[in-house]
Amino acid sequence: MRYKKLGRTGLLVSEICFGTMTFGGNGVGVWERLGALGQKDADDLVKRSFDAGVTFFDTADVYAGGLSETIFGHSLRKLHLPRDEIVVATKVFGRVTPPAPQNPSAAQQVELERHAKARNVNGLSRKHILNAIDASLARLGLDYIDLYQIHGTDPLTPLEETLSALDDVVKAGKARYLGLCNQPAWGITKSLWISDRRNLHRFESLQMYYSIAGRDLEREIVPLAQDQELAILPWSPLAGGFLTGKYTRDAKPDDTRRAKFDFPPVNFERAYNCIDAMRPIAQAHDATIAGVALAWLLHRPWVTSILIGARNASQLADNLAATSIRLTAEELAALDKVSELPAEYPGWMLTFQGADRAGQV
Predict the structure, then answer these.
(1) How far apart are CA 177 and CA 167, in angstroms?
(2) What pLDDT score does 361 carry?
(3) CA atoms of 111 and 30, how far apart (whole Å)
């Protein structure tokens, strides 16, 4: 396990970040389809991750209606993991829908319906952020969050309000660093400009979808991150399970996560070509296709830490094994070529016009 700086900060994080989306999903909407691990299984996976050198853990308030944070917090305490070594990340934005009782009373049903229609229990307003950080800390049983991330984009709240509220969260000692998820390049740039102009704590990391089957991030986000020293933390590095090796052009298993929740979108033809190219490389390294897909990301110089999730110890071990795979220059070139994005404007024009200048160095 290697450790890298989180962007321009002095915080070190493991190159693998264990995500807790599979914790506690039983009976909570989409989270049930992603995973429904109870406390015992969660304890086991957290311990195995830490024993393998993982010190970076990611969750979110919306995962399983808050149960993911609660279960993970119990794991930290039960396992007595050293708080000074552990880096905990969580998120704010969505509506934290509480699990529905199996047989809700009339009063409980009324409360669930009220919550589903409430107007100030989501978004990135000052009110919601300040309420949400306290709720997350209570569920996690912690005094502070290491990395507090906005989970999405709020079209109603001015960026200035959001950034000011997040700055207050850091100044109050409730979070150490700030990050964002799922934002366009122009929005990231605007937020950095506002933070700089107003002397506010800025975002230091970008948690974004990135995989060998989905390299869209490289068009605008990667150059921005390199220029502004922002950490890139890829989520769904196996494209929602598509890159596990279970999928082929002739076989689409119906007992997988993607069969139940077809997300994130992928270009299937390009993705199948990637799988075809990874298969002999996996055999050469005595590894799995999933391991090669993760290793490819770990070889990208702009990637700081990749988020993995697991439903069992076998999946976890397979994912962790990717840290020991060292791809050759020839293997990387082959994978880069088969997964290459089609040229888009203005990218192809910039390359065309800049070719003469680049050749002068």
Answers:
(1) 9
(2) 66
(3) 20
- Locus of tokens 């190159």: 15
Radius of gyration of the chain (CA): 21
Average pLDDT taken over every residue of the chain: 93
Q: How far apart are the first and last CA of the chain?
A: 36
With tokens 């039983």, the residue in question is 26
Residue type, 92: V
What are the residues whose beta carbons fall under 8 Å from the beta carbon of 97, sequence distance 6 or more? 28, 29, 62, 65, 115, 116
Catalytic position from the list 63, 148, 209, 210: 63
User: Please, what are the domains in the chain?
Assistant: 3-358 (3.20.20.100)
Q: Is the pTM of this model over 0.70?
A: yes
Helix (H) or strand (E) run with residue 165 in it: helix 159-171
Note if 247 is an active site residue.
no
Name the residue among 59, 3, 7, 4 with its Cα closest to residue 202.
7
Q: How far apart are CA 100 and CA 107, in angstroms?
A: 12
The dihedral built from the CA positions of residue 336, 340, 345 and 349, taken in this order, carries a sign that is: positive
Nearest to 20 by CA among 317, 315, 310: 310
115-144 residue pLDDT tens? 888 889 999 999 999 999 999 999 999 999
Nearest 5°: the CA angle 236, 239, 245 is 120
Residue-wise pLDDT tens digits, 13-64: 999 999 999 999 766 667 767 778 999 999 999 999 999 999 999 999 999 9
* Cα 241 from chain centroid (whole Å): 14
- DSSP, residue by residue, 287-338: --HHHHHHHHHHTSTTB--EEE--SSHHHHHHHHGGGG----HHHHHHHHHH
Q: What residues are paired with 4 via a beta bridge?
A: 13
- Give how far the C-alpha of residue 99 lies from the chain's centroid of Cα atoms, to the nearest Å: 23
- Rounded to whole angstroms, how far apart are CA atoms 143 and 141? 7
Q: Is residue 68 a contact partner of residue 77, using CB atoms and an 8 Å limit? A: no
Give the DSSP letter string of 6-67. Answer: -TTSS-EEESEEEE-TTBS-TTSTHHHHH--B-HHHHHHHHHHHHHTT--EEE--TTGGGGH
